[in-house]
Amino acid sequence: MTRDHLDPPARPRGISRRAFLRGSGAALALTAGGSLLEACGGGSRRAQLSKAGPLLASPGHPVKWPIYPDNQPIAAGLAPERNATLKLYNWSDYIYKKVVQDFEKKYKQYGVKVQISTFNNMDEALAKIRGGKVDFDLLVPTYDVLGKLVQGKYLRPLNHSYITNIGQVWPVFQNPFYDQGWQYSVPYTVYTTGIAWRVDKVSQDVAKLPNPYDVFWDPRLEGKIEILDDYREAMSMVLLRNGITDLNTGDPAKINMVRDQLVDLAKKVQPVVSTNDYVDLPEAKVWVTQSWSGDMVNAQYYMPKGQSADVMRYWFPADGRGAVGSDLLAILRSGKNPVLAHLFLNWMLDSDVAIENMGWNGYQPPLNTINPKELVSQELIPQNLASATVLPQYFDSGFRQLELSPSVDSLWHDAWQRFKAGA
Q1: Per-residue pLDDT tens for 348-399?
Q2: Which has the closest alpha carbon to 289: 265, 314, 264, 317?
Q3: Average pLDDT over residues 230-240
Q4: What confidence score (pLDDT) does residue 55 get?
């Protein structure tokens, strides 16, 4: 399927799908004393959690979340709700409206409508969900908050009989470490975090540098460097620059090293700190930027009229030893349409639907029926940005940013604020 067949609309000049994905406010809200988890449930459960601490899922310590007696999956074989409005709570600009409209057409005999509400950061989303005054059916969370949502009983456990397309998902996501047995979530998109640059502005080939991350400290690029305004992504980049692959370290010495190098970066190049990478690079506001792979795929649509997107490049380690991540789809317990919500999850895992959605938002779905290496020939990813392709093996070789304990997260934030103060 070529891009011409997808006929995507002009890209809006709005917030990126991953903009504010893990803003500092969201992280603090999830780890401070008044956390989402502590704000829900009975007193005995809160006491148990405060003693044991929250469960932290990781590849080395996978978690199978419990299904609670008072929060059971729906029965199998139920008919879709009639004359219903299915409510999706999603990041801004992260789903193609056409695939939503096609879902409505598929179930039009039931009078189905889909309503999309958006949020700019996870703090905003969780605060609204925690308030209990909304009845969204579906949420697009990150896996580092999934445990809190499950333990807070905000998510509805899945009945797998409605989600037959799970068989199309990469094996790593059929039994993921963050949700063993996929009891509460299905994967939505995958991405890498790398470096993007303009070959018409930067003389050296960033990909061929002995350590590509060093480009961010190059004083010759002062004022033309951009770092993602995301404390986990920016600090992880510094860790990788120094050969440290534990992107969740709680070692104060390593965190202080990251702080010092970021402060040095701020002094040397006066970077732009933003999540507008997908706009700033094509418009040449910056010449080198830290970037998410999906944002770079979309950056081609933001080139000024008459200028070719061929000048952009994206680097991610060829061996996959870089930062990788994924976003999820989950069903909220507060929703009034659980059957339709299950069917929508299954819909988004259909390979034709998923590839059409990628043609609009730039973010790759992890489906076996989609050959990542053919995405370039299908013109979903430009040849010059072929390295923005996400391969299944990256989730074996790559490194994840996981949920941090409150004390460790505090150290990370302290270091980040020192950098932001001087950037």
Answers
A1: 999 999 999 998 889 999 999 888 889 998 888 999 999 999 999 999 999 9
A2: 314
A3: 95
A4: 77
pTM metric for this prediction: 0.84
What distances in angstroms separate CA 88 from CA 115, 164, 341, 369, one per listed residue?
A: 6, 21, 9, 25
Mean pLDDT within 78-92: 95
Secondary structure of residue 398 in the 3-state scheme: coil
Distance, CA of 41 to CA of 295 (rounded, Å): 38
> Residues near 335 by Cβ (< 8 Å), separated by ≥ 6?
87, 135, 136, 137, 138, 156, 341
- Going through 262-406 in order, the beta strands assigned E by DSSP cover 272-274, 288-292, 312-315, 323-331
Which residue pairs, CB below 8 angstroms and at least 24 apart, start in 347-352? 347/99, 347/103, 347/106, 348/99, 348/186, 348/188, 349/163, 349/165, 349/166, 349/168, 349/169, 349/186, 350/165, 350/168, 351/168
Domains of the chain (ranges; CATH) run 3-189+326-383 (3.40.190.10), 191-323+400-422 (3.40.190.10)
Q: How far apart, in whole angstroms, are the C-alpha atoms of residue 263 and residue 266?
A: 5
**Nearest alpha-carbon partner for 248 in 145, 149, 144, 175:** 144
Residues for the chain: how many in total?
A: 423
Quote the tokens at residue 147: 């445990």
User: How does pLDDT run across 301-340, given as a tens digit for each residue?
Assistant: 899 999 999 999 999 999 999 999 999 999 999 999 999 9
**SS3 assignment, position 211:** coil
- Which pLDDT score is estimated for 54? 64
Tokens (6 digits) for 148: 């809190």
For the residues 47-73, what does the mean pLDDT come to?
Answer: 78
Q: At what angle do helices 338-348 and 97-106 cross, to 10 degrees?
A: 120
CB of 277 closer than 8 Å to CB of 289: yes
Block residue for tokens 């047995």: 181
Q: Pseudo-torsion of CA 309, 371, 329, 361, nearest 10°?
A: 20
Asked if residue 122 has pLDDT above 60, the reply is yes
The set of residues, in sequence order, having a beta carbon less than 8 Å from that of 43 and lying 6+ positions away, is none
Residue with token string 């959690």: 49
